[in-house]
Design goal:
By secondary structure, this protein is of the alpha+beta class. It is 30% helix and 22% strand. It is built from 4 helices and 11 strands, in the order ββββββββαααβββα.
């Protein structure tokens, strides 16, 4: 098997390098043509046979540099063959519209009209206006983000101003009335005392019997009714009545036998009665 990359070449025995002469041919005139491999830039229809050529189909084309230019940008022309009838199709570049123009042998299936569909070329002012509109559409999301940030900043500023105004009003009230803090403290003490009295009254009602006597429970489980006055706070017991403590029966831990299930009835098996 030969090498993929040949490093040495074969020279026949009768090789004479002096017989090799250097010749110069005439320079080619006309446009420069070279063979390139490209894909169809747009979908087209052959006029000769009606074959449809979709966008992206590969061709071996001839690339020709024309004498036309658009702002020092050269315009190229490409020659391809129809895949069905081998008719010659030509198209060239269009730097003005950043597209391609179909010249001969084919017709575009979809033509992108950038002049508004009226067939008139737009002026410089119209082109600038169109570019500005496109730029504004692209920056719509950036404008939305900027508006959102501005709204958040305004809300933060408004909250800070409200806080400053509230603090200033509080300071003014304290400066005008020196007893303002003392009055607030007195009101808090009064409120705390009122709540404590309400709690004591609720506890007294909870521990009173139906006949208005106080009930207390001993450590042995017996309940004793005291006739002392709850409100006076004397603490002396005048009469006590011992109630019978309710004794709970001791728990029974007797084990009950578990009945066995008869699975034969579920399976449809009938047992015969014993003869004896």
């Amino acid at each position: 098997m030969s090498e993929r990359k040949v490093l040495t070449k074969y020279y026949p025995p009768d090789f004479d390098p002096s017989k090799i002469t250097r010749t110069r041919g005439p320079k080619t005139t006309g446009p420069k043509v070279q063979t390139v491999r490209l894909m169809a830039p747009f979908s087209m229809k052959c006029i000769t046979c009606g074959e449809y050529i979709y966008k992206g189909r590969k061709f071996n084309a001839r690339k020709e540099t024309t004498d036309e230019k658009y702002y020092s940008i050269p315009i190229y022309r490409f020659y391809i063959r129809c895949t069905r009838c081998s008719a010659e199709l030509t198209f060239k570049t269009d730097p003005k519209n950043m597209d391609y123009t179909c010249e001969k042998g084919a017709k575009r299936n979809f033509e992108v009209w950038r002049s508004g569909g009226e067939g008139k070329e737009e002026s410089e002012e119209e082109r600038l206006d169109r570019l500005e509109r496109e730029e504004e559409e692209k920056n719509a999301m950036a404008e939305l983000e900027t508006k959102t940030l501005d709204a958040k900043r305004e809300m933060a500023i408004a909250d800070a101003l409200d806080e400053i105004r509230t603090r200033n009003a509080r300071n003014e009230r304290v400066d005008k009335g020196g007893d303002g803090v003392a009055n607030v403290r007195d009101e808090k003490d009064l409120e705390r005392g009122r709540m404590e009295r309400e709690d004591e009254e609720a506890a007294r009602r909870a521990f009173m019997a139906e006949d208005g006597q106080r009930v207390r429970k001993l450590a042995t489980g017996e309940e004793v009714i005291d006739d002392d006055s709850w409100g006076n706070g004397e603490g002396s017991t005048t009469a006590s009545t011992t109630l019978k403590s309710v004794e709970m029966p001791p728990p029974a831990f007797k084990r009950a036998p578990k009945k066995k299930k008869d699975f034969s009835a579920a399976l449809g098996i009938k047992k015969k009665a014993a003869l004896v």
